[in-house]
Design goal:
The structure is a single chain. The protein is an alpha+beta fold. 22% of the residues lie in helices and 46% in strands. Strands 1, 2, 3, 4, 5, 6, 7, 8, 9, 10, 11, 12, 13 and 14 form a 14-stranded antiparallel sheet that branches. A hairpin with an 8-residue loop joins β1 and β2. About 10% of the residues have low confidence.
């Protein structure tokens, strides 16, 4: 006979089962949210690194090697539509099918730079496009534009960097998109001729869609600091919003390394590794 005691026992057992299922579902939901936060931070951090690297490396080769007489068996080869110092000018940085650059990154394809004037002049613009351009197997696409704004209120050279139509296609075939508008200020090194003592401060925002198709937006809440003698950003914090959830990505306290710390909406921390 099914007694009242049996009914109560069954009711409590059923209630406990529902609670357990609910707890498990919450755990899975939290894990999925954290996974998406990690993927988003990884894509945004990689995008910041790879597009900044493309801007940096193309400027370095254009300024250092243009007119230097590099032969066709060296990489990259640099050609221009007009003599050095003549504007407007179109400069092609051709990495060929495989070019190992300083730091060990393997590049291929081309970066094409359209220059309106010397970048020392206010209003001068460099527009960079990528033709079958790969870094360590990751294809980089988009248009990267740099405009000289002139000195800021502290007298430091200031530039607007804009990325439109940015995309990264990973070796596994997945793609993440990214667009950004940043103000880049040269806070150290402006008074010396070389680039390697330069220190940049970066502010602004970006947005994109991660490799799983999830949209996000990002704002720099503490200026990113990039030293030209270090491949990666050495400090600064980004705030990343995805599906109403806010995470922070902290690039460190000044040490030169490829690590950043992600803090997810639930307070968990995860190490993000930027591209080698």
């Amino acid at each position: 006979m099914f007694t009242m005691k049996n009914q109560l026992s069954a009711f409590f057992a059923f209630t406990l089962l529902l609670l357990a299922l609910g707890f498990t579902a919450c755990q899975k939901e939290d894990a999925n949210l954290n996974e998406q936060a990690i993927i988003t931070a990884d894509n945004e951090g990689s995008g910041e690194d790879l597009f900044t690297d493309a801007d940096d490396i193309s400027d370095m080769y254009a300024e250092t090697y243009l007119g230097s007489g590099k032969t066709s068996d060296e990489c990259p080869t640099v050609t221009s539509s007009a003599p050095a110092g003549t504007f407007p000018n179109t400069i092609t940085i051709d990495f060929g099918t495989e070019c190992v650059s300083e730091g060990g990154r393997v590049r291929s394809g081309q970066i094409i730079i359209t220059v309106t004037d010397s970048m020392h002049n206010v209003g001068a613009t460099r527009t960079k496009t990528f033709v079958d351009y790969f870094v360590n197997g990751i294809q980089i696409e988009g248009t990267y534009t740099v405009v000289n704004n002139g000195p800021d209120e502290n007298g430091n050279p200031s530039f607007t960097h804009t990325l439109t139509g940015g995309a990264m296609t990973m070796p596994d075939g997945t793609t993440a998109t990214r667009e950004a508008t940043h103000t880049v200020t040269l806070i150290e090194g402006a008074d010396t001729p070389g680039r390697w003592d330069n220190v940049l401060s970066v502010t602004g925002n970006s947005n994109g869609i991660n490799k799983n198709g999830v949209a996000y937006s990002c704002v720099i809440i503490e200026p990113l600091i990039k030293r030209h003698n270090c491949r990666w950003i050495v400090s600064g914090v980004k705030e990343i919003t995805r599906d109403g959830e806010v995470s922070t990505l902290d690039f460190g306290d000044g040490d030169c390394n490829r690590f950043a710390i992600l803090t997810t909406p639930d307070g968990e921390t995860h190490e993000i590794r930027l591209p080698k």
